[in-house]
Amino acid sequence: MSKMGPNYISTTNACKLCKPLGASLVFKGIEGAVPYLHGSQGCATYMRRYIISHFNEPIDIASSSLGEKHAVYGGGPNLKLGLTNVITKYQPTMIGIATTCLTETIGDDVPMILGEYNREVNDAEKLPTMVHVHTPSYAGTHMEGFHAATAAVLEQLAGQGGKADTVSLLPGFVSAADLRYLKEVLDDFGLSAMILPDYSETMDGPAQHKYEKIPAGGTPVSAIRKAGNCRMVIEFGRTLAEMKTGGSVLQEKFGVARSVVGLPIGIDETDRFLELLSAVSGRERPEKHAMERGRLVDAYVDGHKYVFGKKAVVYGEEDMVVGLTAFLAEIGIHPVLCASGGKSGRLAAAIAEVTRETLPEQPRVEEGVDFYDIAEAVESLEPDLLVGHSKGYSLARKLHIPLIRVGFPIHDRVGGQRILHLGYRGAQQLFDTIANALIARKQDLSDVGYSYM
Amino acid sequence: MQALLLDERQEQIHRTGEKPFTIDCDKDSLAGAVSQRACVFCGSRVVLYPIADALHLVHGPIGCAVYTWDIRGALSSGPELHRLSFSTDLQEMDVIFGGEEKLYKALIELIDRHSPEAAFVYSTCIVGIIGDDLAAVCKQVEDEKNIPVIPVQSEGFKGNKRAGYRAACDAMFTLVGTGDTAGTSPYSINILGDFNLAGEIWMIREYFERMGVEVVANITGDGRVGDIKRAHGAALNVVQCSGATMDLARMMEDEYGLPSIRVSYFGIEDMAEALYAVARHFDDPAIMERARDLVREELSRVYPELQKYKAALSGKKAAIYVGGSFKAFSLVKAFRLLDMQVVMVGSQTGTTEEYRELAEITDPGTIIVDDSNPLELSSFLEEKKVDIFVGGVKERPIAYKLGVGFCDHNHERKEALAGFTGMLNFAREVYSSVMSPVWRYTRPARGDES
């Protein structure tokens, strides 16, 4: 693959996004919060546009709208002016401030500026909560931004006052439907939980008659403040490793027990997650979920022949790729390439962990690649399907193979926010989608046009 | 309403007829106001993007390139190099030690791989700060590879989108005048400011060709480097859009004495006037005759169907928020043709003159707004009980969330809205949103229907 070569230098059609985008999504998942990018106006607008095209929801991201003189003399005054304007217009309970490459490079000291702001305003005690995070896009992808923002929120807000929810769940970047599913599962186990972030309503809300300045929903700041007292923090992500995350913050600062599991995609990973919930709650797996699992196994059996031995290329965020690979392997699809624009250094090991029992030999795994690399690799791999977000469409089109749309962004279909990936229920949907895509392809290519499978 | 409006924004909103016209515009976006604008880079990128046989390399961290990958529906009849997203993807070490070497290598690599006719190299915020000498690297590669390698000075913070248009025009102007103009017809034009969204420029070109007018260069829809190089050989620049390519027309006028006229291809009235204006310029009765025939023929084709839409849409209320306000004139007229009422019109980067003219042609009480934001826009939609909102992707969820219809008139549109056929498509687009039965489920509680 060319990126692996000694002279490869340019990026074509990146398979990653920039860091502040991930942070913005985290802040959107907190109740009453407005995300705020400290940088030039374009960053906020571009990310809004990109996110809107997936969620089909309004997403207001404020900006300090820096101009040339601020780049020279510092962006502090505009950051403060912008905060005042956001407070006046939105009356937020929290403002999440993420830096951009511009303000990181000119060296704006955001915590210091926020401190000054606090001293300068009247009624400082009435100010909304402020959380700041460093997200220069020249260091890491949107996922590093996502985890950094989650960690910053907990580091700056979590404490030990009051009775916390039993569990803190940090799911990473999953869909709105996934978040709703997780809430249901936790509830079924009788667990009170703080899920951070939770944009299941703020980014997938009902039609309104009146414009909500800040959509309802999101993780309450009050719940975050008590998270230092929770019994356990559960984090999804097998590639997180040594990265500073919300989980590591709670563990190190408050001694909270930490459990890191993979994104529960497919039966094996979901089993592990539910076993963990069972242990934490002291309850057996509820019958409802046993039934879902049973139906899923039944569906696997009914459809196994249509998917067996098919070759898939999987791409996207690293932890999403790990989960999807685990799922594909357990239904008999052969992942021939697992690729990501991220560079945790952990992707191959994480995939090996989840496919040890299902894959006789390990797939090719590539980190830090773009779609040019993926297209080049695919030439010799002859996959039957692509599994990933919308940006693989041009490749799927070129290869005349189905693209199974998962993750983010889904820019060329409706309902990206409603794709369910997690749990037995998510696996059921993924399985049906994949099996039907392969059946449809066979049917379309057939001279006969069979009307039974 | 007042609570939603920051004091600093008061002067950027005018209500037709309520007081003598004044509006404050062409200023930097207010921090914290959640402007719908992007940045200088965005301005340059959207203008140059449709040049299909050029390499467009974004020098900076990954965001700027990845958010503009295949972003416009600008079609090409040939090469599609413009649909790929190239970046130097600057990393921390590059920021510390400078990105010139990486830029040089990336350019060489991509030029060798794709053999483009030219390369545009976009500067981003960070490049302006770390001080990479873009011009020097471009010059070096140009000498080595023998194709134009053009720096675009589009650092995001150096102004607003208009500054980006200017940078794009500066970049294109370095190409103009370097090509052979032999054999160019005296009845020839360049089309400036049409980006061939959904194939619009093909329609417009065909109209001009039917009139006997040769089109030398499309700037920039379905654009080609070679055509831009010989664009100075044309007899007239026909400029659309609010400002994206006006600077280029001005530069060509100063340097080559090439006159220009300003037109719009949206709506029947403005489309016809665009053809007549070109015919008048050439002062040739045969061309004028053909223009008249063409307009008559096209009108007789689209008019009957338009009546059907007009009957259904009559009296409905429309709001407009677009990038540049020049397009808004045409939209106001187009809605009038459908017997609809425009109650709000605004843009990201309009000029005082344009807003003044809008105030003159709109009905009393119409809201005219510069550089607006979601809270203002949504309050206007609610206040005016709007039926259809015309805008771009960022405006769409604001409309939909409030149960208001929407028509995409921005660069992602997939329906051709220019030309006579475009007017029909536009009416159909408006009709298919306004008349949808889904509003039954959102409207009752909005209080304006039984």
Shape of chain A: globular
Enumerate the strands of the largest sheet of chain A in spatial order, edge to edge or round the barrel.
12-11-10-13-14
Largest sheet of chain B: 6 strands, mixed
Instruction: Supply Rg of chain B.
Output: 22 Å
CATH superfamily of the largest domain in chain A: Nitrogenase molybdenum iron protein domain
Strands of chain A, total number: 14
Q: How many helix segments of chain A?
A: 17
Helicity range of chain B: 40-55%
Structural class of chain A: alpha/beta
CATH architecture of the largest domain in chain A: 3-Layer(aba) Sandwich
Describe the oligomeric state of these chains in a short phrase: heterodimer
Number of helical elements of chain B: 17
What is the CATH level 1 assignment of the largest domain in chain B? Alpha Beta
Whole-number mean pLDDT of chain A:
96
Largest sheet of chain A: 5 strands, parallel
What distance lies between the first and last C-alpha atoms of chain B, to the nearest angstrom? 25 Å
CATH superfamily of the largest domain in chain B, by name, is Nitrogenase molybdenum iron protein domain
How much beta of chain B, percentage-wise? 5-15%
CA-CA gap between termini of chain A? 38 Å
Largest interface: A-B, 74 and 79 residues
